[in-house]
Every structure is written in C-alpha cells, then in structure tokens.
C-alpha cells in the first residue's frame, strides 16, 4: 500500500495519505480545509543501509524539516 503526498490547491497544505485502493482516492479531502482540489506531489523516499557506520551519518533525519545535506536526501 503506497503512501502518497498531496498538496491542497485551496489552502496549500501538504499532507500524506496511505492509499489502500482506488476507492480511497474518491473520498480524499484536505485535512485542513476539507476541500478535494488536490495535486499529487512527487515524493522522496528513505533508504536504509546496513554497511556499518555509513548509516550513522543519516540517523536522526531532518527533525525540523530542513536538511543539513540536501544533496544526499533530496530535501531543501
């Protein structure tokens, strides 16, 4: 079951939604304003590495939403 990212055209809120089937998209609405004028956004994904200390540099993620290394994770 994929998780999609959406942006509301009315209020601009960006949110994620777990989609279980096509019927879930028919009733999809913005959790902030309740409108259904939504655009599906391109998502970034996380990868896990089991190569010793290499994964240690990625621990903690981007808690504030701003990434210290955007060239590595694709966030700005």
Describe this structure in words.
- This protein is α+β, with helices and mostly antiparallel strands.
- The protein has a domain at 1-42: Rubrerythrin, domain 2.
- The chain is built from two helices and three strands; from the N terminus they run ββαβα.
- Strands 2-1-3 form a three-stranded antiparallel beta sheet, with no helix packed on it.
- It starts with a strand and ends with a helix.
Order of helices and strands: EEHEH
Overall 3D geometry? flat
Give the % helix. 10-25%
Hey, roughly how much beta strand do the residues contain? 15-25%
As laid out across the biggest beta sheet, the strand order is: 2-1-3
Query: The CATH topology of the domain at 1-42, please?
Result: Rubrerythrin, domain 2
The whole-angstrom Rg is 16 Å
Count of DSSP strands: 3
Tally of helical segments: 2
CATH class of the domain at 1-42: Mainly Beta
CATH architecture of the domain at 1-42, by name, is Single Sheet
- How confident is the prediction overall: mean pLDDT? 75
Low confidence ranges: 53-58
Structural class: alpha+beta
Could you give the distance between the termini?
27 Å
Biggest sheet details? 3 strands, antiparallel
């Amino acid at each position: 079951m994929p998780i999609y990212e959406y942006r509301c055209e009315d209020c601009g809120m960006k949110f994620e939604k777990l989609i279980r089937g096509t019927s879930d998209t028919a009733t999809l609405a913005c959790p902030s304003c309740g409108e259904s004028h939504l655009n599906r956004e391109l998502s970034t994904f996380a990868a896990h590495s089991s190569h010793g200390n290499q994964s240690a540099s990625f621990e903690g993620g981007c808690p504030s939403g701003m990434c210290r290394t955007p060239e590595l994770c694709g966030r700005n």
